[in-house]
Amino acid sequence: MVKSYLKYEHSKSFGLVTSGTSNVVWTSKDKSSITSAGQVVVAANEEVLYWDIKKGELLSRWRDENCLSQVTAIAQSKTDPDVFAVGYEDGSIRLWDSKIATTIVNFNGHRSAITNLAFDRSGVRLASGSKDTDVIIWDLVAEVGQFKLRGHKDQVTGLQFVEPQEEVIEEDGGQAMVLDGAAPSEGFLLTTGKDSLIKLWDLGTRHCIETHIAQTNGECWALGLSPDLSGCITAGNSGELKVWALDTAALAESQRRVDAPPNAQYLRDRGTLLRHGKDRTTEITFHPHKDYFVVHGSEKAVEIWRIRSEAEIKKSLARKKRRRKEKLAQKKGGQANGDGDANEEEEDQDDGISRADVTDAFTQHLIVRTSGKTRSADWAVNHGSSSKTLQLLVATNNNQLELYNIPLKEKSGKSKQDDVPDYTRALAVELPGHRADIRSLALSSDDRMLASASNGSLKIWNVRTQTCIRTFDCGYALCCAFLPGDKVVVVGTKSGEIELFDVASAVLLDSVTAHEGAIWSLQVHPDGRSMVSGSADKSAKFWNFKIVQEEVLGTTRTTPKLKLAQSRKLEVSDDILSLKFSPDAKYLAVALLDSTVKVFFTDSLKLYLNLYGHKLPVLNMDISYDSKLIVTCSADKNIRIWGLDFGDCHKALFAHQDSILQVAFVPNNHNGNGHHFFSTSKDRSIKYWDGDKFEQIQRLDGHHGEIWALAVSHNGGFVVSASHDKSIRVWEETDEQIFLEEEREKELEELYEKTLTTSLEQDPDAEDQDGEVAAASKQTTETLMAGERIQEALELGMEDLHVVRGWEEVKANNPNVAPPQRNPIFLALGNISAEEHVMSVLQKIKASALQDALLVLPFASVPMLFTFLNLFALRSMNMPLTCRILFFMLKTHHQQIVASRTMRAMLDGIKLNLRRALRRQKDEMGYNIAALKVVGMQIRDKSVKDYVDENWDDGPESQGTKKRAFLHVS
């Protein structure tokens, strides 16, 4: 009989505030919430978290079960604040509704990670840049990719929509902006790339109209566009900021002109600013309402820059001219060129601002020192907030969010120019996560509490609610464990100290300098009365738990206190990396740096077995519940299973693709499964093994970094893991059964699907490789399956059409002939016609995947598809979808269709039926629009009354009587 196993699945993750893979987005506070200061949308590996910055509360968690890639970019819609675009590492883009935490639409067009996302002003278009050097414009209404822009030679590092509004001349000679009701234009797109280029794209003609070298000292890593579209700033390596002036008036004029001048230049280099830091600049963000912008790199500093007003620039220029004049006067005696200097000053004052240096227009306001390396920053803009300060949100690489209050420059002249304004750290979200990698995990005896230890902190978690109960300050923790009773946690540190923490009172009970080297492992004795610690000082020490009565300071009372008392010491030949008691307390296994494992008798500390076979040091080990097997894992990527009776190696398994860090047996055999164990590795995976059959049962993927720690519950119901990605994940055992053969087949299918989609994308748009514009398409497993469903529906439909047509020919001569035997699928669906079946299959395909699914069809299937399109047009079935499919197929297979005589004849019939159907729909829409206008007029007549004054002067100058309208509010 084939053995089955119970499946483990990912159930929850916690311990992560924000990951350093994406930018952060600030959203204004909810009007219904009085206590909230605002919300923050951040990336958390493959999830998106929605935090309340003031309460430190997680409001919602956005996760797509079908996507395991990390979030790399987030953008908020400018028209609908509840809509967010999220880019992922696999090149996919998902639109999320923050109110219901569900996906609206899914786009696939990029082959690499998304680096930038930007919405246009109307919120109906989305631009995305990627590491694959392409920029794609997405139509959010039609849910399709419009086109792909190619021009950069390296990853896209910044993009912004530039949509200038045309200026018109009013009757009085003044200028006014065109209203929103004017005819819309496609606008422009500004992009920067790692290839040090800045490009301006005309989205109407879909080509690049201007290219400049953004940074002369290397790559360009950031782009910031001013809110008034008057200019932009690019940044790269060594702290250089280049300022560009953008001629929006000329851009607006070029939209109306047919012939643009060949030497037109819309971007102009204004100069270079130098940051305080010399690291690579990663982000530039302008304040939407104030003349400030924020610049930061990868260090622990965020620089706030201020744009000076016109009066300040004039004052600065006048001061410089006065100094220059004084120097010239001193140099020439103050007599020779006095009149010439005055004339020069008058000439410079006329256009001084336009010729002013960028250092006169931009000045550094202050530098915010953060508690961790900065990953992203965003302005926190709330309506009704204080006008004297700005708020800045900063996300750091050490898993925390910070909100700073930035004071504005005082308008009064009392403060000295050299005074640096002081900022304050107002709010932070830091308790729900560690600042450094979690190096050890330990579960309490009832599996309700979880202890996680890292460099500088120890946290106690409630496993069921995933909330942090306690936080302790500790040293560089390498190992930890709960003592019997689950009231005390013991921690071993890198400095050789053992620290005892009381969970209930949240205090440090005792700190013992136990070893001269790092304590790599500690283990509580199965009887709960003592423990052993293993260190890099080549010794293992045994400690007894003792209750000592200590005097309370200032009183005569005493209080009991737990202390550690050393009882024995075991000297070995090399550093101890791991040690483990057998469950029957008979043996103590010690793993040494010389790649061997020595097993000692616990009572006499005499050597029992010497296990050797690993080529690199053993990093961790565990002993089975019945004390019969010991499993060891090593940096040589192998797992070895040994018998504790004779010390023979039962099996050596090549288990992972990198160093194996942890291994742990399931501590019981309640289900009679035998010896099962888990292993974790630097290859970011957890594997579930059968230690009796030496087979891999299951592979658990989900972490995005090396997995440092692992803990298995005492009943085997769940597994907890902690990784370099700062997340703690819980994997629960389900009732679903899995079989080894099915798991191997599933792995092969996943590998095949991955290679299949990769092979289809190897030569996309071969004819457009050298062009600037290409189709925004990408084949995925979903589109391949959709294309196969269309192909199958077309074949079934054509077969049914032939059967029905033959039956109708026979029926013309013999009216009593029996109906034909149709395919059972049509009968199961309610005896529908072939065209209804094909239409239902097409309608079930997502709009964003329809074009890619149609590309899967070979040209031999196009005549069959056109046959059904003709039937759709004849019966007016879903005309928008019919026209969309028809026009896309005509554009894709234009050359083959033109060269085919049968296809041209078929197109004549489609044209006739399509025009008739579209004319009918046009008439219906016109009739409906006219009816709506009539209804609107009736509503207006009932709600608006016209009133004319009796004493109205009907002079010749007022031939047309003017009326005032009054609205009756019911």
UniProtKB/TrEMBL annotation:
Domain (Small-subunit processome Utp12): residue spans on this chain: 835-935
Biased composition range(s): Basic residues: 961-970
Acidic residues bias spans: 341-351, 762-771
Residue ranges of the region described as Disordered: 318-352, 758-780, 950-970
PROSITE patterns registered for this protein in UniProt: WD_REPEATS_1, WD_REPEATS_2, WD_REPEATS_REGION
GO molecular function, one term: snoRNA binding
Origin superkingdom: Eukaryota
Gene Ontology, cellular component aspect: Pwp2p-containing subcomplex of 90S preribosome; small-subunit processome
Gene Ontology BP annotations: maturation of SSU-rRNA
InterPro entries for the chain: SSU_processome_Utp12, TBC1_cilium_biogenesis, WD40/YVTN_repeat-like_dom_sf, WD40_PAC1, WD40_repeat_CS, WD40_repeat_dom_sf, WD40_rpt
Extent of the WD repeats: 107-140, 184-211, 431-471, 512-546, 611-652, 653-699, 700-732
Keywords, comma-separated and alphabetical: Membrane, Repeat, Transmembrane, Transmembrane helix, WD repeat
Membrane-traversing stretches: 853-874
SMART domains, A to Z: WD40
Family statement: Belongs to the WD repeat WDR3/UTP12 family.
Protein name according to UniProt: Small-subunit processome Utp12 domain-containing protein
Species of provenance: Monosporascus ibericus
